[in-house]
Amino acid sequence: MPELTIHIGGRGFEVSCQDGEQSYLQSAAKMLDDEAQVLSDQIGRMPEARMLLMAGLLLADKTAAVEDRIKIVEAELAERDSELADLRAAPAPEPERIEVPVIPPQVTDTLAELAARAESMAAEVEEKLAK
User: Which chain positions lie within coiled-coil regions (predicted)?
Assistant: First the structure.
């Protein structure tokens, strides 16, 4: 079991940890030391036990605030997951049908030809009636 010396509030402490957890221990010690430094800067020198207690309480307060925020975020995530599941379960909307009239050019040409023939026939009928 590895032993490390951590420094908190300017004091060294010998601690043991599981193999492979050294970096986590050093990180936690750094967080505690940072809080102890804030206390030391604000209050000045105090007994070791009180300094550790106060620094621990400050970290516990921060941790509680983070846990509260995590609960809020998890609730929002659960709500979004539920909305997403509802959307996925909903039937797909009916596709909108749009009809676009398309008249092939041949039809237009044929209609123009028929109109010309009709006019020609009308002219012939008028000539015959006029005689």
Answer: 70-131
